[in-house]
TrEMBL record:
Transmembrane segments: none annotated. Gene3D superfamilies: Amidase signature (AS) domain. This is Amidase family protein. Belongs to the amidase family. Residues 25-446 form the Amidase domain. The lineage of its organism: Bacteria, Pseudomonadati, Pseudomonadota, Alphaproteobacteria, Rhodobacterales. InterPro entries: Amidase, Amidase_CS, Amidase_dom, AS_sf. PANTHER family: GLUTAMYL-TRNA(GLN) AMIDOTRANSFERASE SUBUNIT A, MITOCHONDRIAL (PTHR11895:SF7), TRANSAMIDASE (PTHR11895).
């Protein structure tokens, strides 16, 4: 049988639909690969193998009976443990939720299953999904497949590591401060943060999210190939009545002026020379593809977006968050929340209300900028992937890490889609660039991302 990892998700699904490749064969091969490779990286932390085989056999039977298999027919996917999957614990990486068994699938997963996707495992995250590192007391530590000394990223670090290792074609992740884009960057794969409302998400197992996550947190795909992201987005998306933010917006939009803003140091960050070099390479690739790439002297503020993001996410109900982190006993969550504890005390109702006026002004400025420049090319991070657990080295280290992440933290507050594209892996250290587009124009990110991917190539672990 053809190795499923040699096929794109679209090619694989086409063969399963035609009957030339059986979903059960693809699933068995993927589960065998998980059994071989996952113990070394601990990316998949909840086993769904038996259910996956049942679902694959049922899909083969439907196709044999003449039914349509779906756009994701037989495609192996993984789901982050932050999301409801019927019959499994929605742990979010905590012992506190180890028995929180979902009774229904989250709507994005319903959509993917309806298109024939097969869930081959559930992936790790840090406790409460707070960190750019992926370890917790319940599921253990996830390692970077390229280099165990580096973080696989977070909070969707299990998704990034599984994708890089070929443990499924499409991984589900979530992103409120870079939690899709950073694991993709750290693991040498591709990751798409969609526009809020594009991919429906709702956990029946728990309470509704607080205001910050409602406004900024999204679900989206990670994959080795940009076209796999495109197919994953198509499969996840759609209006769902149980997600009040979901919207039935077309996946493609009208033609735009082919102008790109190259922003090497968003917010004035001190960017690593290798990242700057890869941004220049990406700019030249886009120029050769017909894009007009410019370095504008005036770029809307992104630092204020970071500040507002911190207040809307971490400062809201901060004391409850810190109490839960202490009850869990997770050092990473405690370190982060303690770092912002004094700041959170200064957020009263009037200050919190004023955040939304400031947010509206920033969004207005960025949307106006994106009329002139429909695509922005910028770093994912100002630094190469962090050392494993580097955020536990004290407040100074934590402050430096958050400074490096300015390019990704500010984007969620602005409500924009963004794509992390791997630009290469050198001596076991991945790197990448970020593309940002106007709301609902993931298609622009994906189109440009495919151009970059053809030049940069794919980079599986050695």
């Amino acid at each position: 049988m053809t190795d499923p990892n040699d096929l794109t998700a679209r090619e694989l699904a086409a063969r399963v639909r035609s009957g030339t490749l059986k979903a059960r064969e693809v699933t068995r091969a993927t589960l065998d690969r998980v059994a071989r490779l996952n113990p070394a990286i601990n990316a998949i932390v909840q086993d769904t193998g038996e259910e996956a085989m049942r679902d694959a056999e049922a899909l083969d039977a439907r196709i044999a009976a003449g039914e349509e298999g779906g756009a994701l027919a037989g495609v192996p996917v993984t789901v982050k443990v932050i999301a409801d999957q019927k019959g499994y614990a929605t742990t979010n990486g905590t012992t506190l939720a180890k028995d929180l068994i979902a009774t229904e699938d989250s709507p994005f997963l319903r959509n993917m299953r309806a298109q024939g996707a097969i869930v081959v495992g559930r992936t790790n995250c840090p406790a409460f999904s707070y960190r750019w590192f992926s370890s917790n007391k319940l599921h253990g530590t996830t390692s970077n497949p390229h280099n165990p000394g580096l973080t696989p990223g977070g909070s969707s670090g299990g998704a990034g590591a599984a994708t890089a290792a070929g443990l499924g074609h499409i991984a589900h992740g979530t992103d409120i401060a870079g939690s899709i884009r950073y694991p993709a960057y750290a693991c040498g794969v591709q990751g798409l943060r969609p526009t809020p409302g594009r991919v429906p998400a709702f956990n029946q197992s728990g309470p509704d999210r607080a205001i910050g996550p409602q406004l900024m947190a999204v679900a989206g795909p990670l994959a080795r190939r940009v076209d796999d992201l495109r197919l994953g987005l198509e499969g996840m998306s759609g209006y769902a009545p149980d997600d009040p933010w979901s919207a039935p917006v077309p996946l493609t939009g009208p033609a735009v002026a082919p102008r790109v803003a190259l922003v090497k140091r968003p917010g004035g960050i001190d960017t690593d020379p290798r990242i700057l070099e890869d941004l220049e390479r990406a700019a030249e690739v886009l120029r050769n593809a017909g894009w007009q790439v410019e370095e504008p002297t005036q770029v809307p503020d992104i630092r204020e977006a970071v500040e507002l993001q911190i207040d809307l996410w971490l400062s809201d109900a901060h004391s409850d968050k810190l109490a839960a982190a202490k009850l869990e006993g997770d050092p990473g969550a405690i370190a982060l929340l303690s770092f912002y504890e004094e700041r959170a005390r200064g957020i009263d109702l009037a200050t919190f209300s004023a955040l939304f006026s400031r947010r509206a002004r920033l969004i207005r400025a960025w949307r106006a900028f994106l009329v002139d420049y429909p695509l922005v090319l910028m770093p994912v991070s100002a630094e190469l992937p962090f050392a494993q657990d580097e955020d536990l080295r004290g407040p100074e280290a934590l402050a430096r890490l958050w400074e490096a992440q300015v390019p990704q933290i500010g984007i969620p507050l602005l409500g924009l889609p963004a794509l992390s594209v791997c630009s290469g892996v050198e001596a076991g250290v991945p790197c990448g660039v970020q593309l940002v587009a106007p709301p609902w124009r993931e298609d622009l990110c994906l189109d440009a991302g495919e151009v970059l991917e053809r030049s940069f190539g794919l980079h599986p672990p050695g």
